[in-house]
Amino acid sequence: MVVRVIALPPPAFGEAVTVLRPGPAVLDIYGNDAPGPDEEHPLHGCVVAPEPGAETLGGQDTVTDRLVIYAPAGTDVRPTDRLRIRGEVFTVHGPVQDFRSPMTGTRAGVQITARRVTG
What we know:
About 0% of the residues lie in helices and about 60% in strands. It is mainly β. The chain has a six-stranded antiparallel beta barrel. The radius of gyration is 18 Å and the shape is globular. The mean pLDDT is about 85.
C-alpha cells in the first residue's frame, strides 16, 4: 500500500501567527538546565479577535492586552508556547480549546487565548 501526502498551500484568508516554543534544554554557566533557543513555526489562516483588556493604575501603570485566536483544526500550540501576533509577543493563557462536532466528531478548529502584560 502506498500512502501519498499532499502538501496544501496555506489558506488565502485569515492571518499568520508565529508560535515561539522553547528549544531543547541547554546547560547554563552554572551547569543547570535552561530553555534552549526558541523554535518557530507559523500558523496560517488564523482569526485574531480582541478581548477587553485591563489597566491598573497606582504606583505602576500596568496594561494587560488579551486576544482570542481561532486557528485551523490540528494546530500545534501548547500552553507553554508564546505567540508573535502582528509583531508583538503574547503568552498562551490557559489550555488550548479543541472544537468538535457532537454529531460527527469532526474537528472544527481550536481557540487560543493570548495575553500580554506591559508596564
